[in-house]
Structure formats: structure tokens, C-alpha cells
């Protein structure tokens, strides 16, 4: 999945288990009428998963992963010490999804999942049945992606612009050529490693009225955010409505933010680095497009080729103008202006080269509509694993639950978890 950054001109967990013999669970053999929400529930730990699992790694790494995951499992079990599970079947599974790339640190990404399957009352047999899939789930992911569902590497995205007549689309990570894939992985452009406040909230919070507050909660590990409320967040759910609430926490090192702001100075300097990548990509695509037309004589081919040839002449002027503007800003602006955070224009319609050039020196004081505050990984945070890939540097907690008149089991389980789960114990795992 590609991550898109909007810059002035414009830079734009599924669980993998390893199938074994299914371990079936028989629902309670009791009579029900209309609902099975009050039927005694069933819990199985990781030794009785629905599907088998495998934690790939060295023997030492497997031992550490199992120890950490079993610790999380025991925390959840302890939270239900005085709780009666009803109306559902709760099944634990473990998984390893691969690795997460935190800049210079490659960490194993693995986690604990408690899938909660609803018990329903069969309409004619009047006995409980287990729904095949779960919607309510409690996940704890060790070393998660900063961007949910994101790629292993930080440098992803695309750049869109229009040079007078044509619209070009090309990578922002590295120059084209035989070393592109290697450079994209090993030394991506600095601008391709930017995050925005909105990108950190993607899939985690839809509270559009409090975006900055929610960003700070995640970035500093100081609270939870929620996704999936929609308009009910501000109106409140009705008695007969159905909602799925997705709560997220990032468990972080105390007092050390995950991301730090990009200053205007850093942004402008990074732009100079990027212009060389843009130039190489433009020249590559322009030449490729001209070559593909070849000697075709149709009217459309003649017009397209003329546009491409005109762009070939015009681009160097645009390239030099952007470099000159950035260098002038760096030379003439006062240090206090240059050290302010880089909050850039985010109007994706500004693809025209002249409009993009105008937006290049336009900064704002805070993130808002059509504006994006830029951040990078905090080097001070992502240290300390000492080559131990399975050591937790960051933990994400997710509890997704349902609210409706026939999903009482989900709300009860979540309410108990919220009151009794020792989330501070998770924090001890990364200190």
C-alpha cells in the first residue's frame, strides 16, 4: 500500500496464520429462545486456536516472542478474573507478520489476537450456534507499522504535477535506473519519509473535530483514539442502531515522541535534494513517452509528441526556478522563521507547474483543511533494540467492539476490559 504525502507542488492487520487441523468447539448444549446472549461463553487460550500458528525466527527469537505473547495473554485473562463470559466464544491466536522498518532499525512484527465469535440462537432448533467470523476483537501488536497497513519501508508515495500540457506521475523515493529498487529501499529520498498528522490517524481516528489532539495522544502515547463512530460520535447512538467502535492506543517510551516536526529549513533543504530525483524521473518519463509514440502519424500522436517536446524544453526552466526560489528562502529568511514547523499547502488540485511553484514557499502556522503538518521518525525514540529484532520498541493496542441491542456480549466484554485490563503492564514491556 502506498503512502501519499501532499507537499507544495505536490508530493503526494490482516492476520497470517498457518493452517493446521481446525480445532472445533461445540457450543453449549442448552435451550435458547430468540437470543443466545445470556448463554455461558467459552474461552480458549493459544493452545486451542481455531487455526494453527507459526512464529518464524531463530530459536532464541521464538522463545522471546512466545514469552511476550503469553504475558499479554495472561494480562487479558487476569482482567476477566471476576467476569462471566456470556453470549460468545473468545479464542486466542498468535501470529508473526514479518518485519517493520523503523528507519535504521528492523524489528519483528508479531502479535496477540482475541477473536470474539457471537453465539446466536437457531430459529428452529432453539440451540446456540457459533457465528463463523468475528467482528469484535482485541489485538496487541508488537512493533506495528506507524501507518496501519503500510509497507515495510518508510519511503513510499507518488508525485503528481502538470508541466503546461501533460500530467506526469512518478516515484518520489529515488532516481530511475538499474539501482532504483535498491536505492528506494536503502536510501530513499528524505521527503519520501515524511509523515503528516492525518497519516498517523488514518484507520485509527475519525474524530475530525479533534485531529490535532488525537495526533498528540498517539504520538506521545498518552491516551486512546477511536475510529468508526461516524456522526454518532457527536449525536450519540440510538437504541436500535448498530455501531462498530475501533479503539486504538500506542504504547510508547515515556516522554519520547514517535515523530518530530520537520522545520521549514529542513523541508527546503530536503526539496533541493528531491529536485534532482524529480528531474531524473521527468527526463526518463518524457523520453520514454516520446519513444513510445515513435513514427506514428495520427493527429493524436502528433499533438501528444508536440506537447512532450514542449515539456522537454520548458521543464529545465521550472526546475531552475524552483531551485532558485528555495535557495533564496534559505538565504534571506530569518532563523526564527526557518525553524518553525513546516505546515504546507495540501490542495491537491494545484498540479499546474506555476501554481505549484507559487505554493512552494507558502507555509502555515497549524494543520487544518488543505494543510499538512510534516513529521519524521524521531531518531531518539527508535534506538535501543541492540540488534534484537523481537524486542518491543512500540506496541499498538486495538479493541474493536460492536454496539447493538443483540450484541450485548461485545459491550460487556469491552466495558470489563476497560475497567480491569492493566495497560500499564504493557508499558513495562518497552521500558
Give a description of the structure.
The chain is α+β, with helices and mostly antiparallel strands and 431 residues long. The protein has one domain. It has helices spanning 59-79, 180-186, 197-201, 211-220, 232-235, 264-293, 299-332, 335-338, 353-359, 408-420, 423-427; strands spanning 42-44, 88-102, 105-121, 128-130, 136-142, 158-163, 166-171, 195-196, 224-227, 243-251, 259-261, 343-345, 371-377, 395-403. Strands 1, 2, 3, 4, 5, 9, 10 and 14 form an eight-stranded mixed beta sheet that branches.
Task: Sum up the overall morphology in one term.
Answer: elongated
Would you identify the regions where 5 or more consecutive residues have pLDDT less than 50?
1-21, 151-156
Oligomer: single chain
**Number of contiguous helices:** 11
- CA-based gyration radius: 26 Å
- Give me the count of strands: 14
Into how many domains do the coordinates divide?
Answer: 1
Structural class: alpha+beta
